[in-house]
Design brief:
With about 325 residues, the protein is mostly helical. It has a domain of about 130 residues: Potassium Channel Kv1.1, Chain A, CATH 3.30.710.10. The strands form three sheets. A three-stranded mixed beta sheet has the order 4-3-5. Strands 1-2 form a two-stranded antiparallel ribbon. A two-stranded antiparallel sheet has the order 6-7. Helix 5 packs across helix 6 and helix 9 packs across helix 11. The longest helix has 14 residues. This is BTB domain-containing protein. Pfam families: BACK (PF07707), BTB (PF00651). One of its GO terms (biological process) is B cell receptor signaling pathway. It comes from Pelusios castaneus (West African mud turtle).
C-alpha cells in the first residue's frame, strides 16, 4: 500500500494563510485558447488542515462523541465523509442524527482519539502494541483505508509466534486477503509455527486447508500426524468428532510402516474412532503391497532448497 503511516501528534499544523500563498507554479494549468483552468491539487490539504484547526478550536462542531469518561467534539459532515458507519448514523433517519451527544460503544477513549486524529489529519501511528485495537475499531467504524494500513502492518510483522493470533483476528473481522496471506505463511513455516502452543488454537477449517497443501513445509509426514493428534487432544471433548476429517489430510501411506503400526494404529484416540478405520485400511494396503516406493516417485512433490518435502498420496 502506497499510503504513508506516520505519527501525527508531532507534526506542525499548516496555517491556512501559508497554504494560500502557494506559488502559481504549484497549480496545474490547462489552457484551451481563450480559457485557462487552474486545478489546485493542494486545495484538499488546505481544507483538511482548516477542518483540523476548527476541531482544535472547537469551532462549528455540532456533535460530541462520548467514549468512556471522555468527550470529543467533532463535525458530523467530516465523520460522515470519512466513515460509512457515521454516514449511516447521520444521513439516515436515526435518533443520533439529531442528538448533540452520542455514546459510542465498542472502543476505548485512546483508540477513538487515534481514529479522530486520523480522520482530520490522515495520519496515525500504528505499533505492535496498538495494531489490534486500531484494526478492530477501524473495522467496526468502517475506516476502510485504516483497515488496509493495519492489514499491511500485520502482514509485514508476521512471525511463527504471532501468526495464529493474526489469523484468528483476520477470521473474526472477515479480512480474507490477510487470512490467505497468513495461511500461506503458516504453510511455508509450518515446522517453526508448531513450536508455539498458540498453534493448538488454530481453527479447524484453517487446519484442514493447511494440512492438505502440497507445499506444506515438513521433513516427514509423522510430524503432520503428531500435529493432528496434539491439536485434537488440546480440546479433546470438542475436537474428537473432527478427528476423521482432519486425519483425512494426513498422508498416512507416506508414514514409515513401523511407525504406522506402533504409533498410529496403537494410539488410543485412533482405536476409539471407527470412522478413521477406512483411512487406516488404505494405508495398510499401500504398505503391504510395497507401493510406498512407487508413491514417492510418481506423486506430486513439493521440495525446497533444504530438501524438505510433502508428497501427495493421491
Amino acid at each position: 500500500m502506497g499510503d504513508k503511516v506516520e505519527k501525527s501528534s508531532e507534526e506542525p499544523l499548516v496555517s491556512l494563510n501559508n497554504e494560500c500563498s502557494r506559488k502559481m507554479g504549484d497549480l496545474v494549468e490547462v489552457s484551451t485558447g481563450d480559457k485557462v483552468k487552474f486545478d489546485d491539487t493542494g486545495l484538499s490539504i488546505v481544507l483538511q488542515n482548516g477542518l483540523e484547526n476548527l476541531r482544535l478550536e472547537n469551532s462549528l462542531t455540532d456533535v460530541i462523541l462520548c467514549v468512556d469518561s471522555m468527550e470529543f467534539s467533532c463535525h458530523r459532515v467530516v465523520l460522515a465523509a470519512a466513515s460509512n458507519y457515521f454516514r449511516a448514523m447521520f444521513c439516515n433517519d436515526l435518533k443520533e442524527k439529531y442528538e448533540e451527544k452520542i455514546i459510542i460503544q465498542g472502543v476505548d477513549a485512546e483508540t477513538m482519539q487515534m481514529l479522530l486524529d486520523y480522520t482530520y489529519t490522515s495520519q496515525v501511528l500504528i505499533t505492535k502494541q496498538n495494531v489490534q485495537k486500531v484494526l478492530e475499531a477501524a473495522s467496526l467504524f468502517q475506516f476502510l483505508r485504516m483497515v488496509e494500513a493495519c492489514t499491511s502492518f500485520l502482514t509485514e510483522a508476521l512471525h511463527p509466534e504471532n501468526c495464529v493470533g493474526v489469523l484468528r483476528l483476520a477470521d473474526t473481522h472477515s479480512l480474507e486477503t490477510l487470512k490467505q496471506q497468513v495461511q500461506s505463511y503458516i504453510i511455508q513455516n509450518f515446522a517453526q509455527v508448531l513450536n508455539y502452543e498458540e498453534f493448538l488454537e488454530i481453527p479447524a477449517d484453517i487446519l484442514y486447508n493447511t494440512l492438505k497443501s502440497d507445499d506444506l513445509y515438513v521433513t516427514e509426514e509423522a510430524q503432520v500426524f503428531e500435529t493432528v493428534m496434539n491439536w485434537v487432544r488440546y480440546k479433546e471433548s470438542e475436537r474428537f468428532p473432527l478427528l476423521p476429517y482432519v486425519l483425512e489430510h494426513v498422508r498416512l501411506p507416506l508414514l514409515d510402516p513401523w511407525y504406522f503400526v506402533e504409533t498410529v494404529e496403537a494410539d488410543q484416540l485412533i482405536r476409539q474412532c471407527p470412522d478413521v478405520f477406512p483411512l487406516l485400511q488404505e494405508a495398510r494396503m499401500y504398505h503391504l503391497s510395497g507401493n510406498e516406493d512407487h508413491l514417492s516417485i510418481t506423486s506430486n512433490t513439493a521440495k525446497d532448497s533444504n530438501g524438505s518435502f510433502r508428497a501427495s498420496s493421491s
